[in-house]
Amino acid sequence: MNITDVRIRRLREDGKMKAVVSVTFDNAFVVHDIKIIEGQNGLFVAMPSRKVGDAEYRDIAHPIHQQMRDTLAKVVFEAYEKALIEEKANEENLSDKKEVESAQGDSAID
Question: For a surface tag, which of 4, 63, 87, 88 has the fewest beta carbons within 10 Å of its beta carbon?
Answer without folding.
Answer: 88
